[in-house]
Design goal:
heterodimer, A: 100 residues, alpha+beta, 2 helices, 4 strands, 28% helix, globular, B: 386 residues, alpha/beta, Elastase, domain 1, Neutral Protease, domain 2, 3 domains, five-stranded mixed sheet, 11 helices
Chain lengths: 100, 386
């Protein structure tokens, strides 16, 4: 499974390279934890963020399964469920970056 | 339990239409309770939609009413109230900057456009400082959430507090103005126009506050946010954006290069996703931004708010939510005609032509004049070349 987290928006409009993680490169324990976090996040049920906030930082989380199926999920941290936030936190930790 | 997340719930015993009626009532307690419930109701998807729906029922015009809250490095809004209208200055610089910046912006809209707050009905101006989405990460941002301004403290490496720039405060408040006027959707070209109006009025508020002429202004957005060491892409100080020279605001190894285009030939077709900045709303805004700057220079008035400001303000009030750059260009030309006449039309049209939104003036090829003897006296002149 491959994960990528890209940031967009914000009043600065900054564009940064996405955080990327290929779980195939992880030790088994980390890989299993990430897979469990992805399952717990229930990403397909994640509602699209509303348009109310202008200049709010947003993210697109891309998930590519081992069979090649790929999906993008738009989200904002303030409305993301705790399980999604936990996944993103772990993605950031493993990707070794605090890019926002 | 993480209280920042509020699970969506559609279990409302009072139907939305009744809540909307309650929200229109004069009794403040009833009205506020209904509004709070409506805001929690995900059947109205966004706060913007809710507040726009309630626009006609907004609080009646009144004096300036500012309230600043402190999120205390959390994501809870609005946070703890720390300064209300008329209170003495705080020992917290960010609180005072948010308070003062809202006051200047309110005064600008009042004195230049006779507008009473963001909704033109005296809406209170609420702001939250020291906001963070994640406990361990400084928040590099400011935003308008549909009902209030929110400011982060920055990472303290590249960005300082987002209350430091008056033009950024005015930018956020102008998102509120746009919400109650054109309500430009926050995607693609209408979204870039939404951003541009915020930059245009943000810059104008700063210029007005400093008493600057068109020539004296720096035309930068967010210069004060950047900590020393951030490199500019020009001889001007580093900033987030430049209306005078889009694409040159920064050129820094940590931030990259300012990606804003100044002409339609460099328009960026980005995905309408969060990753794509909703279709590049903060990127392609450089084009209408530059058109405003050029209009100011061509109009020849001393200040941006003398002629260009009223033209853009009237346009903001006339546009429809899905307006394109071309729609905005045509609307400004029409408003220029109504407000200031033929010379203003010429200046504004030229500005949009120079950024490639309006077609360039046709080059008239004049056919060589034939010797008089070779053409009959009543001959029709030859048509111009294609």
């Amino acid at each position: 499974m491959k994960l990528a987290l890209a940031r967009g928006g914000g009043v600065a409009g900054l564009r940064k390279p996405p955080l990327a993680l290929d779980t195939a490169t992880l030790p088994p324990a980390d890989r299993d934890r990430v897979h469990a976090l992805v399952a717990a996040a229930q990403l397909p049920a994640l509602p699209a963020p509303g348009d109310a906030a202008h200049d709010q930082v947003g993210y697109t989380l891309s998930v590519t399964a081992d069979d090649g199926a790929a999906h993008d999920y738009d989200l904002t941290l303030d409305t993301a469920p705790p399980a999604v936030r936990a996944l993103i936190s772990e993605l950031r930790r493993l990707a070794g970056s605090l890019a926002r | 339990m993480d209280h920042r997340y509020r699970a969506p719930c559609r279990c409302y015993i009072i139907p939305p239409h009744i809540l909307q009626y309650m929200a229109s009532q004069a009794n403040a307690q009833v009205r506020d309770a209904a509004r709070t419930t409506l805001l929690a109701n995900r059947e109205l998807v966004t706060q913007r939609e809710i507040f726009s729906a309630l626009g006609a029922t907004a609080i009646a015009a009144g004096p300036l009413r500012r309230t600043v809250y402190d999120a205390r490095n959390e994501a809870t809004l609005p946070g703890d109230r720390v300064r209300s209208e008329g209170d003495a200055a705080s020992s917290d610089v960010a609180v005072n900057e948010a308070y003062d910046g809202a006051g200047v912006t309110h005064a600008f809209y009042d004195q230049i456009f006779h507008r009473q707050s963001v909704d033109d009905r005296g809406m209170r101006l609420d702001a939250t400082v020291h906001y963070r989405e994640e406990p361990e990460v400084g928040y590099d941002n400011a935003f308008w959430n549909g009902r209030q301004m929110v400011y982060g403290d920055g990472d303290q490496e590249i960005f300082g507090s987002f209350t430091r720039s008056l033009d950024v405060i005015a930018h956020e408040l102008t998102h509120g103005v746009t919400q109650f006027e054109a309500a430009l959707v926050y995607h693609k070209q209408p979204g870039a126009l939404n951003e541009s109006f915020s930059d245009v009025f943000g810059s104008m508020v700063k210029q007005w506050h400093l008493g600057q002429t068109v020539d004296q202004a720096d035309w930068l957005i967010g210069q004060e946010l950047l900590l020393p060491g951030v490199q500019s892409g020009s001889t001007a100080p580093a900033a987030l954006r430049s209306l005078k020279a889009p694409g040159t605001a920064y050129a820094d190894k940590r931030l990259g290069h300012d990606p804003q285009p100044a002409h339609m030939t460099n328009f960026q077709h980005l995905a309408d996703t969060r990753r794509g900045d909703n279709g590049g709303v903060h990127i392609n805004s450089g084009i209408p931004n530059h058109a405003f700057y050029l209009a100011c220079t061509h109009l020849g008035a001393a200040h941006a708010w003398d002629q260009a400001g009223p033209i853009w303000y009237a346009t903001l009030r006339a546009l429809h939510p899905k307006a394109s750059f071309l729609d905005a260009a045509k609307a400004t030309v029409m408003q220029a005609d109504q407000l200031f006449g033929a010379d203003a039309v010429k200046a504004v049209r030229a500005a949009w032509q120079e950024v490639g939104v309006l077609p360039a003036p046709e080059i008239v090829h004049v056919a060589p004049i034939l010797p008089r003897a070779a053409a009959p006296a009543d001959a029709t002149p030859p048509p111009p070349a294609a």
